[in-house]
Design brief:
Chain lengths: 244, 178
């Protein structure tokens, strides 16, 4: 492990070579919006919200999956990036069926908060109103694919933390969809342990507990860092992490 | 002359208008400042000419909504999308995954307790468009008021700005879906 020096938005900062640009930016209080990233899960660069500009490179890089290099000059908040971020939120809105008014996580939704961050007054693209399936066959939980943004947090937490790998993605492009096991009703899944981790990490109301009504559900995602810490360091120190 | 204000109810639940009425005593102040020329709460049949400000609630859901939307654009200087249904389609657009025929059948036949008949022979009933659309997908819109419904404070802010001759730039704190 080596310590590198780089420049973020004109400030000289240092970071470790095994960290991501996102990690380093956050350590220095530089805010980069994210959606698919969640502390405790691997990064996949799916949502593209954390794209940053790297001097000397024409293409943009997702901060969550890009490692630092000595002398790198990075910008995180240019007009071009702001424009792209707004466009991404607009595309997510137009490609799903997000009716905040009737959603369990209304006012506690990461997609909503991102829309506010980019001051999304309206969506410039025509809404597609895709036909998506809702699956309420599980005893305790529901997946409403109308609200899914395909961040794959559920897929990753189920595979990486719970070790069940119930969730996966089927299809391509606009037809991408989250499936349980061999694309079967969730309630019939043999691998699902009903642990509920997927429900808790979901940034929107796509996964929710039965019995929750509009704006009632607030997701607690802290559990993940305790579990990951316990596994990596072989110690259970939930309270200490909370204090940090 | 007082500014001529219209409020319109397209494909929505009228909740935005209820919130408008929730401005309470501010309505008295407003009544002194404006001339309300068209509204669900005023008995006016035809959307008038020379309207200064139109607050339009609801998505564009049937052919009557669509015609009225174009008339509003022709006759009003400033058109404000009033609430989430006008801005995003919201609940009104939840039917868009189904065809109009499926929806009509569901409402008038499957769920009918007596006399399951599709009212197609009545000429007065507006025809559903293939999909309900947010207002700005049908006509150009000058501003947006979010929320389901927008709060009385949001509405008061927007209307006050418009009456002062300014385009309302709603602060980010007023940006709230749902």
């Amino acid at each position: 492990m080596a310590i590198l020096t780089l420049t973020i938005n004109g400030e000289h900062v240092s970071g470790k070579d095994d960290e991501s640009l996102l990690d380093i930016a956050r350590q220095h209080d530089v805010h980069i919006p994210t959606l698919c990233h969640l502390d405790g899960l691997s990064d996949v660069g799916a949502c593209r919200l954390c794209l940053v500009e790297v001097e000397g490179q024409s293409k943009l890089f997702p901060a969550c999956t890009t490692k630092p290099q000595e002398g790198m000059v990075i910008r995180t908040d240019t007009e071009r990036l702001k424009k792209y971020r707004r466009t991404i939120i607009e595309l997510l809105a137009s490609e799903g069926n997000h009716q905040c008014a009737v959603c369990v996580v209304n006012n506690h939704c990461e997609l909503q908060n991102l829309a506010y961050d980019v001051d999304l007054q309206y969506v410039r693209f025509p809404y597609l109103y895709p036909k998506k399936e809702l699956d309420a066959t599980h005893e305790d939980f529901v997946i409403d694919r109308n609200r899914c943004v395909l961040c794959t947090r559920c897929v990753r937490v189920c595979h990486e933390v719970e070790g069940a790998h119930t969730w996966d993605i089927a299809g391509r492009g606009i037809d991408c969809t989250i499936i349980a096991d061999m694309n079967q009703p969730w309630g019939t899944s043999a691998s699902c342990t009903s642990c509920g981790k997927c429900v808790r990490v979901c940034p929107t109301g796509a996964l929710f507990e039965k019995g929750q009504t509009v704006a009632e559900m607030e997701k607690q995602r802290d559990f993940l860092k305790y579990i990951v810490h316990a596994r990596q360091k072989r110690e259970w120190v939930a309270e200490q992490i909370e204090e940090e | 002359m007082k500014p001529r204000v219209a409020t319109v109810w397209l494909g929505g639940c009228s909740g935005c208008h209820m919130s408008f009425l929730d401005m309470d005593e501010r309505l008295i102040e407003l009544a002194d400042k404006i001339e309300l020329v068209y509204s669900p709460i005023a008995d006016v049949k035809q959307f008038p000419m020379n309207v200064d400000v139109a607050l339009v609630e609801g998505a564009v859901s049937n052919n009557e909504n669509e015609e009225l939307a174009h008339l509003i654009r022709r006759n009003a200087k400033f058109v404000l999308s009033f609430g989430d249904c006008a801005t995003t389609g919201n609940v009104t657009a939840m039917r868009n995954q189904f065809s109009p025929d499926e929806i009509i059948h569901r409402a008038y036949v499957e769920l009918a307790e007596a006399d399951p008949t599709i009212p197609s022979e009545f000429m007065t009933i507006a025809k559903l468009l293939p999909q309900a659309k947010p207002l700005h997908e049908v006509i150009p819109v000058d501003g947006f008021l979010h929320g389901c419904p927008p709060t009385p404070d949001q509405i008061w802010f927007a209307v006050s700005e418009l009456l002062a001759g300014r385009t309302p730039v709603l602060p980010n704190a007023y940006l709230r879906y749902g």
